[in-house]
Amino acid sequence: MKLIKDKVFLKLAASLAIPIILQDILNSSVNMADTFMIGRLGESEVAAVGLANQVFFIYQLILFGITSGSAIFMGQYWGKRDTASIHKVMGIAISLSIFFAFIFSTAASFIPEKIMALYSQDEIVIKYGCDYLGIVIISYFFSALILCINAALRATENTKLPMCTTFISLFLNVIFNYIFIFEIGLGVKGAAIATVLARFIELLCQIFLIYRLKMPVAAKLSNYLKADKTFLKGFFKITTPVILNEFMWALGTSIYNMAYKYSGTEAQAAVQISSTIQNLFIVMGNGCGFACGIMLSNALGAGDIKKAISYSRKCLKVSVFLSCIMGVILFLSSDFILLFFDVSDIVKEYAYYLFIVTAVGIIVKTYNYTTIVGILRSGGDTKFCLILDAAGVWLIGIPLAFLGSAVLQLPIYVTVAMVYLEEVMKFFVTTKRVFKNNWARTLID
Q: What residue ranges in 280-384 does DSSP mark as E strands?
């Protein structure tokens, strides 16, 4: 039985989603390679690097807020083939991203011990985390430019180049990890150096290719700086809620890890392993959701509301179908995945049960990603998304995380399962919102 019979939709969705999915798999593989290699050093190192990366996690999601908010406009402008306005949006996005890179790198440089103490009570974990943070913050500036360029490329329906440059980054990151972690023996510092070098080379390749191939996103520097007050006002009206949305969600999710410290270092190590694996298995549904946002933005920019609504329904079906498949694969491969980690039996036990929780949770999680990021935001319904995400994390997720870990002292996998209730709430709310179709509107003149 065929899920969807619309060949035009499937062809377009596949051309956009497959490179995005492959790129996200590669991105997750970079993180997984780090975790696997650091996992050979011990559970303290795994926990330290994972918790130190909470700083980057918050920063990255602010970048995602900037770039996904920008992609709303870039996608709609691409529907009209207005490249001059796309360059203006890119200039604003890059400026904002560099600004936040400076803020986060400065904080991580001057108060690393205080930052790590928020997530761990283990002095060894804190020390390793500070060693890692002191080096990896250099990559924040490279990531700012990479993510902005990737968003512009995707919005203009060029999803293959980001996939290729990410592959280069993965390949180099694995090689540099092996050299600096094991051959030179720098441990967690080696992992940080490898990340910095891989991201720097990825950025150089990206800039070289977009200008060499004369892609629509390439322009003179002055073209990126032409946004006037009216343009900026329209941009920030839509994107500010998206940036706040991602910041509030990222901060709240990071606070989950503060709550999990009451469950102990072993539980935290298991959470970091589970989170890394989850990111690899969630890419199918998320890739479809991101491609959905591109298709809907392009259709809305061209003024075709009916097509946008039709595509939104089909994207939901595909994302749920793909996430179900990935959930089953994760469930069946849980024991095999744990063979790659040199951690204690108790950490493996926790991680195994967390995999089971994740295998079920990613279905509703990817559905919500498609409705919020792929559908509602594409039409500028960003304030609603901000309120919903903030309510889910701060009124449901965080209280349940502290209740399960600090108060009831439940097993970590039970606490994480409780936290997933925020996704269940969002499932019902977003479904109602999507099917009202109020989100389907054109934002540009």
A: none
Predicted pLDDT of residue 1: 41
Are the C-beta atoms of 298 and 312 separated by less than 8 Å?
A: no
Residues 26-62: b if buried by 16+ CB within 10 A, e if exposed: bbbbbbbbbbbbbbebbbbbbbbbbbbbbbbbbbbbb
Residue pointed to by tokens 């910095």: 196
Scan for tokens 């500028």, then name that residue.
380
| Nearest partner of 96 among 51, 26, 136, 151, judged by Cα | 151
- Residue 33: C-alpha distances to residues 28, 61, 192 (Å): 8, 21, 13
* 327-339 tens-digit pLDDT: 999 999 998 988 8
Does residue 185 come out as left (phi exceeding 0), alpha (psi in the -120 to 50 range) or beta? left
Share of the chain above pLDDT 70, in %: 96
Using alpha carbons, select from 390, 365, 354 the residue that is nearest to residue 263. 354
8-state DSSP, 214 = T
CA distance 361 to 313: 21
Phi and psi of 42, rounded to 5°? 140, 170
pLDDT tens-digit map of 268-281: 888 888 887 887 78
Domain segments of the chain: what residues? 7-436
Query: Which residues of the chain have a pLDDT value below 50?
Result: 1
Which tokens hold the place of 104?
A: 């986060």
